[in-house]
Amino acid sequence: MSIRQSGEDYLEAIYVLSEKGGVHAVDIANRLNFSKPSVTRAMKILKENGYITVDFENHIKLTETGEKKARQIFERHDVISKFLMQNGVCRETALNDACLMEHGVSEESFAVFKRLVK
Question: Looking at the domain that runs over 5-68, which CATH code has it been given?
């Protein structure tokens, strides 16, 4: 199933936030600087598509499918930002640019980034 860039951003945020404990919509809203209603709407879509679950205490958790996709997105972000920083781009710019690039880079190009970072 294909997922849009905004959905990938949400999955990546949930993945990163889940490392620190339980994730709620307000945590995602704060991290991404989005309104809570926007996050709530996105969570509904991600849930309907099998990427997340929401329990009775409104904890948001990635499903196996969601976690796999989130790990892929996070890895792309991490590798591309490291590549940019290793080649002289300041940290803030590298992180911002990696966020844009991670969604559109081909598998072939990503493999090159990955090889050069290691």
Answer: 1.10.10.10
**6 confidence band (pLDDT: 50, 70, 90):** confident
Q: What would the pLDDT profile of 95-105 be if each residue is shown by its tens digit?
A: 999 988 988 89
- The topology (CATH level 3) of 71-117 is Diphtheria Toxin Repressor; domain 2 (1.10.60)
Q: Where are the strands (E) in 41-110, listed by range?
A: 52-54, 60-62
Under a CB-based contact definition with an 8 Å cutoff, are residues 10 and 32 in contact? yes
In this structure, what token pair is assigned to residue 28? 């995602």
Name the pTM for this structure: 0.87
Query: Long-range contacts of range 80-89, CB-CB < 8 Å, 24 or more positions apart?
Result: 80/105, 80/110, 80/113, 82/117, 83/113, 83/116, 83/117, 86/116, 86/117
How is the chain split into domains, by residue range?
A: 5-68, 71-117
- Residue 92 tokens read as 């803030």
